[in-house]
Amino acid sequence: MTAILAVDALSVRYETPDGVVNAVNDVSLEIAAGECIGVVGESGAGKSQAFLAVMGLLAPNAKVSGGAKLRGRELLGTDPRALRELRGAELAMIFQDPMTSLAPHIKVGDQIAETLVVHKRTSWRDARAQALKLLEQVQVTDAARRLTQYPHELSGGMRQRVMIAIALACDPVMLIADEPTTALDVSVQAQILSLLKRLMRERGMALALITHDLGVVAGLADHVTVLYAGRVVEAGTVRRLLKQPAHPYTAALLRSMPRIDASVSEPLVAIRGQPPSPRELVGGCPFHPRCDLAQPRCAEERPTLRSTAGAMVACHFPIAASHGDLS
Q: What is the CATH number of domain 3-90+172-313?
């Protein structure tokens, strides 16, 4: 299946007064039309930085290497004006906090319409009519009234739906959703995820879901890529990875997640320690200081990503312990 987005050996580093920050290290992944890939890891793992690099939205002091192709067209190093034409039209992103992503002084309808005016050269009158249809498509109640409201007048779930409407306005082939359900209550989270799943299938759109929540991944993703300290440590199908994690970090993430079928007395197991700072150069496997299965080799030699029992794993001593089917 042809990839809509192909990321190859992507690395991102920052030159700062306090030294070099290695945010993303040699990340590769592919997403096909109609597929969802879950990109998972703790805060600081490099998830958002990788896709901000794809979007061309990194800070000026970022140094990027590798490649990222959208339908065969290289994005990294592309002329900023050409990249602006792609963003919103073919490549769109839903950011983590809709309250800070939406302009507080502009009505919701105008923010949606502006995307169509800029990218499709639609008249404002037609764009506002299409904005109404988009709000209805993302299941915003009383959509006509919402068009005339400001972001602060909407609930968190409504603001997130507005962000989705803006992202989908120009029918992009690739959508990036960065923690789209953060700070929403459980029932609203389920509605947003169900909406994304339906829109992805209806439009044949590729979806990258950035999250720390494996439960969200289980309900929506086809494939999963797990990042740790800016590196891919495991990648595979969602069913394979959640049933039989091969990397100790993936297994630890699963053990730390509440399970609806678990015994009430069964404790959650926290991952000891903290992820390394992006400023630190950890020798060997970056997870070895926190890994219960670490051996001397792990501190000395960095594992390469290789195929193991149906998944890609960067571990000298991969495991295959079943943790139940979360998919």
A: 3.40.50.300
